[in-house]
Amino acid sequence: MSSSAIDADGDALDLVCQLDNVQGIVDALTSVRWKRHQDAVVELSEHGIVLIVEESSCLQAKVYLQKELFVKYEYSAEGRPRFGVSLGLFVDCLNTFSVPGNSNSIEIRYPGPDMQLLLKSVDSLDACIYAEVRTRIPDTISWDYNFEPAGSTPLHFTVKSAALKEAIDDLEWPGSNIQITLQPNPPCVTFRGEGHGDLQIDFMYYANTDLLIAFSCDRQISYRYKYKFLRATTANIPGSVIRDNRGSKLTIGRGGMLKVQHLVSVAKPPVSHSHVDYAGYQQPSRIAYIEFFVKPEVDDNTVND
Amino acid sequence: MKFKANLTDHGVNLLEKRFLPALDKMGKICHLYLTRDHFFFLHNLLNGDGIQSIAQFKKEALFEDYRISSQNEDRIAFAIDLSLLHRALRSIITVYAEFSSHGVGGVVSNQIQIRLVKKLPAHSQQPTPFLTFETKGYKSAVIQDVPISKPLSRADMAELQAALDTAQEMPRTLVKVRDMNQLEQFVDRMKHVGDVMNVSISKYGDLHLQISTTLITLGAEFRKLLVLGEQAEVPRGEGNLSAQTRTQRAIQRGDAMIVQVSVKHFFKSLQCHLAKPDCAFYGITSQGACLTVIFQFFVPGTRQTDKSISLHCRLPVLDPGSN
């Protein structure tokens, strides 16, 4: 099982990396699957791997897998290689390697002789699973979102991921928009949906400190977002995030652009002989960062800006 | 044409808990083929397309007091719906078990008897054949009738026997799979990727499965498996090459064979694990005619093959492999 970073022609491969918890990566990537067919763009760098998906210039998601998540990360490319891959296919393929009961270590190499992404299990010498995923030259990302702060004081709040998901699920009305309002006095976040009647969910900063963990806002602002895009930001949060009950941070930038950030644990599950300290504390390097950007609905009724 | 036998407790266990659940997965309809010494469940031997399955029992494995007679060398064959058979057997067993366990003062003699009969079904003037199960209940005999096809003619039975003879052909090289679970888990996850799977088996003891579409190639290789039959030494210096490369080279040397089978068929054949075999052997028959999987059963508590029961499947090959 040689893992030299040289391919058959003697050129160095752009990337040879190894991870020891495939399920964690599957969880992180699954959180940005909101449709059956999604084309993702993957960017490799010396810092790690970023995977980007977007829809109709209104919704974009990024998964950051920094190199510290990997047991091994050998980067030899010049510049930052980018390629396109089918997200669903890639996740289903990774899932094949994640067999309960086995230690799921895989090696990923790029590029193969035909610019494929090459995966191979490295657990055992006598049984091996491998995959070659076809890649494409990626389309340029059509939407340059350019997230900027809304003003001198940042506008953001952090809410428990489980509560956020539940609130968004509850606000489901067909074809509706969801209005998110932040107000400083009293500090409060309101989600409001209009349909046959209306539903409003308030997170009061001082009342529910176990739900609303952080809050920063110096003036009232309010924006509307299409329900289906907002829903995409929480629909596939992995069960582990809900169980860990981490916070998800929502930030409103200039023009009402919404940024939603989640943290997904990619830690190896505890094994009796492992030296990883897993008593509820996650080392920062075992966390994948997920970011969503949602464009606001713009119409004449917008309250601000 | 007569058939009558008593199912033993061992037979009941073998059928109801192990073989019928597995054979159910092979197909709803199968042939039962009864001879003087053996009892067979045969799937798809007479029609070309599906996965073939042959379950063979020596009569003593299932029955006592086995009596059979017919004008065709005491052989009888007919088609039966396995789900109906399974359901009838389950319900007879319930009655049998209840009554037997309530015996007062000593052993209650009770049997499950199985017989071939001709009866008048409801709303019909024409007697039709049934396989009948009978046992004693609390107050009366309990009978379950399973409708069967007309017994096969002499000509059809000859065809069935010929198909059975062909199906007994052994591949020259067989590799032993230790962990059927691992194989099943892998194929379960692979099966959504594509419909067709390449299977190659080498004389070195390698089993290599691969599914390939325009967008993805997914494969699993199991090496250093025990080999029965024709074997060969692994050539030196190839250990580090990819599974695909090693397989290609082995085929070129004549040390391996490769065939294409349907993923659905392969997955179906893995359901035979419900019969609780101790291991499975995979092989490709000569000229790549089919992929054979033979399930081995040990005498409980030993590592001796139980020769009274056997189960094997033959998967049709979709495209001749390059041998």
List keywords for this structure.
heterodimer; A: 305 residues; mainly beta; nine-stranded antiparallel beta sheet; 14% helix; elongated; B: 323 residues; alpha+beta; Proliferating Cell Nuclear Antigen; 7 helices; 27% helix; Cell cycle checkpoint protein RAD1-like (chain A); nucleus (chain A); DNA damage (chain A); DNA_clamp_sf (chain A)
Question: How would you explain this protein's 3D organization?
Answer:
The complex is a heterodimer of chains A (305) and B (323). In chain A, the strands form 3 sheets. Chain A has a 9-stranded antiparallel sheet. The radius of gyration of chain A is 21 Å and the shape is elongated. The longest helix of chain A is centred in the N-terminal third of the chain and has 11 residues. Chain A has 5 helices and 18 strands. In chain A, a hairpin with a 5-residue loop joins strand 16 and strand 17. In chain A, 14% of the residues lie in helices and 38% in strands. With 305 residues, chain A is mostly beta strands. With 323 residues, chain B is of the alpha+beta class. Chain B folds into 2 domains: 166 residues, Proliferating Cell Nuclear Antigen (Box); 150 residues, Proliferating Cell Nuclear Antigen, CATH 3.70.10. In chain B, the strands form 3 sheets. Chain B has a 9-stranded antiparallel sheet with strand order 6-2-3-4-18-17-16-10-14, sandwiched between helices. In chain B, a hairpin with an 8-residue loop joins strand 7 and strand 8. In chain B, helix 1 packs antiparallel against helix 3 and helix 5 runs antiparallel to helix 7. The N and C termini of chain B lie far apart (48 Å). The model of chain B has no long low-confidence stretch (mean pLDDT 90). The interface between A and B is medium-sized, with 19 and 21 residues. Strand 9 of chain A pairs antiparallel with strand 13 of chain B, so a sheet runs across the interface.
